[in-house]
Amino acid sequence: MAVAEPRGDSPTFGAAQEPSQEPSAASGSTAEPGERVPTVVVDGVHIVYRVHGAAPAAAPGAASKPDDAMGHRSLRARLAGRKPQFGSVREVHAVRGVSFAAYRGEAIGLIGSNGSGKSTLLRAIAGLLPTEHGAVYTSGQPSLLGVNAALMSDLTGEKNVVLGGLAMGMSKAQVREQYQQIVDFSGINTTGDFISLPMRTYSSGMAARLRFSIAAAKDHDVLLVDEALATGDRAFQKQSERRIRELRERAGTIFLVSHNQKSIRDVCDRVLWLDKGLLRMDGPTDAVIKAYEQATAR
Amino acid sequence: MINSPEPQQSDPQVDPQPDQPFDFRALAERHGLAVSGARPTFTAYLRQLWGRRYFIEAFSRAKLTSQYSQARLGQVWQVATPLLNAAVFYLVFGVLLQSKRGVPDYIPFLVTGVFVWTFTQTSVTAGVRAISGNIGLVRALHFPRASLPLALCLQQFQQLMFSMAVLVAILLGYGIPPTPNWLLVVPVLILQSMFNAGLALAVARLGSNTQDLAQVMPFVLRTWMYMSGVMYSLADKAKHMPEVIQVLLTLNPAAIYLDLMRFALIDSFHADQLPPHVWPLAVGWALLVGGGGFVYFWMAEETYGRG
Lengths: 298, 307
Prior knowledge:
heterodimer, A: about 300 residues, three-stranded antiparallel sheet, about 30% helix, B: about 300 residues, mainly alpha, 13 helices, about 0% strand
């Protein structure tokens, strides 16, 4: 974990990009020889959020504004002076008919403006959000890299490591085994015995480091990473990127949502560009990022 | 992954060709991929839940200790809260309203009632918000969702253990001798826990995507409390009521568990004060609500987390 390696040109990158090198193991028994093994197949997926008590905006079509896609903006809609109708349910169509197949060994980046449906799609792949139409097929259990929601700020870092590990599905023994590694990786204890203090006493950077360390302690078949690389100071960011690459080597497929195009370029070989819930482009990293930059520069 | 070397914006999706749509479903089926987030079978669900038993335990204990971690007195509140609760009820119903008329050992009677009722009440209150209040967790991690209401019930159970310690102190201080009957506390607690867990699971599903139930619940629970004879002897109050109501009141599961606990702990609470068929009823309610609530919750497993 601590071994420094040159960024961007790690040897595993080239290997993963060569599909013919993929062994057709396990589920690939029925596959034609030489066919790549899909790990995630997204088939015409639509995802709709329902927001209670938020009246539709006056302007037609505004309900599908990308800003509303995550359902976070109902308060703003209210503050804008719209009267919420009693018992009204507003539907927010966050993902509208996305299809693609991801194969073993791929690292796929998701880019797009805020509210374009990236995180929503990730949650649907993980099976955490039900789809309205279409289906997501996966081999193995895709997992989101993130345990933030399971941690409690009133508990000590120590107890949070255990709680977070158990929440991710690790066994008691696995947690015990990984405990020291997690603490060491987070670097929480380098300046004092902070791990035995409640997490609410941590600085935001320290808390973020511990969260990442817990989340990254487990290996996954299909790993989904949502903006996790932007935590901590520069040194920790580099350390986390290394860890993501390690996880990638062991995971079948990795998905990365990020607004940091550098980390997408460093980690991913394929990029999906989502725009207003639609898949606008799907291709090699350089081509898609270039097109995305051209479109957003305007 | 790369079907055309230079994807054009005018031809956005590379994988499915526009004129001959790619059959993703067939691809998935050919490789034996499973639908993500599908509801597991009932037995698989039970197995998953058992696999998460340490998480359930850790989650409940974390909730319990974080509850008072910012208070100066800290964990003393685990004991002080039930004590204060009992004191308030004693002041209102024992001193002001004189409900103690006709009830020997009124303080033990009242305190047992309050503590045992609180277990059911807080389990239901926590259950309603078990999913909606932990939506971030549900949307971030994979685990059988029943872990949440069950963990919250376990937290209430641990809370009850503190209360029971207080109760035993009150009973002994009141001069009530420990008898072999006290052993009945164990089956009563098991049955009541099953009942509470089932109820918490059921209301967790009902309250999973709306806050409205959580708003109504306090009123439902207060009504239920007054009908369960927590502060007074229900048998005395119901004497002059129509027989239908008397029968209905004896069927009330909360009252059944309360009375059984009083029968177990208080020697002046005799068996003839218990309604007929009280043990079969206690077991029946536990199995019906415990099992039914669990199945009802499982049937919507894949939908939890929808915004």
